[in-house]
């Protein structure tokens, strides 16, 4: 969630035709590794896949 709300995440959101947040900050990871599980609406799957790739 923190990455999605960051300036990098919001750039991906905007690149995919969604409306980005205006006031965002750079993302700084608090962990070295982990697992991302995406579930929910299939309408956001394409942008979620791009967010995952960008966050790595």
UniProtKB/TrEMBL annotation:
Record organism: human gut metagenome
Please identify the protein, giving its name as recorded.
Phosphate ABC superfamily ATP binding cassette transporter, binding protein
